[in-house]
Queue: 3 jobs
Job 1
Amino acid sequence: MSKTDSSPAAPDAPAAPGAPATMWQIAHRPRWIAALILALVIAGSFAALGQWQLSRSLEGGEITEQQSETVVPLESVATPQEPLASVTTGQTVALTAEFVPGDYVVLAERRNTAGLGYWVVGHGREPSGASIAIALGWAESRDAAASAIAQLEASPPSSTITGRLLPTESPQQSDFEAGTRSALAVSELVNLWPNVDAGIYGGYVVSFDTPAGLEAIDSPPPSTEVSLNLLNVFYAVEWIVFAGFAVFLWYRLVRDVWEAEREEQQPDAAVD
């Protein structure tokens, strides 16, 4: 007696006449293969955007400590009348500038290692005529700052300056109603210094050399620690979800066609 062949049909075998097509057979139709390719391209684009957002979620110092502690000429990293680039923040620079007599400024409420006190800021003028604000040192009291300025007027500091370049501060930090000037704001210094016709740098330098009567201003290297930006992580996850949805949408459309064809080919229910 011959045995009836009961081996299952291949998955991609054509459906028997009158039998509904399987989902696998529908997915092999040219239009749905093209739709799958399109879905994969879209999903790949979304995945790439997610990877880009994830890479941006790790934020750290844009310059390393080794770079920031390498002394470079001021003019190589900054230009008068232009804002400082973020990568130059905290850079150690060297410059040559004469201090303009009578243009020293005292800033209050400046924190140092010893607590709150006063900064003495000088008006440096480069040989080109460009101006730069130079924070020379910290004093515990206003009288001590005034005394240091008197010494600076009598014996100006060296014209060769090495220090850390920092961006300008906002003048809104000062309490003008109380008569307190605490921000080292370049926009404010322009109105205090009578002659800045050759331009002024958009930041200031904290001098490493401290004049007599003042203490060194605490100016550590810029932080290079890496922090996690949760908003970018959320966007990265969002793009990955979109990528998965593109493929799921293709699957859902194929399934809808399969269900529709199966319902059309099912025989009508017998009527009692």
Note: The beta strands are 58-59, 72-73, 92-96, 98-99, 105-112, 115-125, 131-139, 160-167, 200-207, 227-228.
Job 2
Amino acid sequence: MADTLFYSPTLLESSLLPEKESQHCVKVLRMREGDKLTVTDGQGSFYECTLLQANPKQCLVDIQNCIEKPKGWGYNLRIAFAPTKQMERNEWFVEKAVEIGIDRFTPMLCHYSERREVKTERLEKIAVSAMKQSQRSYLPKIDELSQFEKVISEPFNGKKYIAHCYDLPKKQLAQHYKKDENAFFLIGPEGDFSQEEVEKAIATGFEPVTLGDSRLRTETACLVAIHTIHVINSLS
């Protein structure tokens, strides 16, 4: 597979690269007709292609081979998080989470949220870039910002966890999670969840867990949760 990976979610329908990908192909990499390139649809496939038309607005390719690439884990992993005030920290988290491996992000509006709006288009661009950089074939879903109550009411086939800082009974995630289980995490804002939110989450099936002895930043807690799940599943 080529070192540079391109992304086109509609490749099978049109054999065309989006404008941004086409610009990178022609203006940055200086690729020409006849050159070989690899494209992913973000849905689990790599396509080995030949460049037919090197147009910076819309490159046309010929698909010569399809390689199915499993996402790398057999369970579903979702994070609902309260975005931090500094958008750069949210972007950093999304980038690293995609590199590690995740299925779905849900920005969440909580009682103590510092940020009350999120441009998901920017996060999607970060996710696409991280997917290509890490040579993955799956693009995680990124939801629009949702109210806490709506998030906890959504069905999920697997284990549901809420990580909070209150001095209440909690289990160590690393000791409680079982290999191959789907996992859905709620990670709150810098000021934590409100006690009412914790009670509502528990009432709807979320189990309170701790991620360790340190008080973690929101984006750090998200990554610790994701990495813990992957580490447990990697053990024989």
Note: Residues 22 and 55 are 7 Å apart (CA to CA).
Job 3
Amino acid sequence: MINRKLLIEKAFEAQKFCYTPYSKFNVGAALLCDNGDIYTGCNIENAAYTPTNCAERTAFFKAISEGQKNFTAIAVVGNKEGLNPGEGDFCAPCAVCRQVMAEFCDLKTFKVIIAKSTEEYLEYSLEEILPLAFTGKDLDK
């Protein structure tokens, strides 16, 4: 059972820790594991840009580095610095984050929740936001 409101609240809490001196665009993520644990992440920018890490990947890497490998859902929130929940727009995961999700999550059952607030959100399966995904199964062909 996914407590969407709690997951979105955790994503907004994580957003407070963003390091975004260049874009001033803050993203928070909350990743729900099968066992009920929640790992959060924020985006962390770098002046060289390519070392920047997205909130979603931060949450995944934290969870994986602590032995978690089974995931149910992720909530993602994002908006310009200074905006309150509900004032921004929906912030979907980038393609790199979607690919990381495909490495560790079931395309059909893993849920991606993108939210403006705890009341206003959209929910998709990973398969819906990453059609024709390339996964480890493709390497076995």
Note: The CA atoms of residues 31 and 37 lie 8 Å apart.
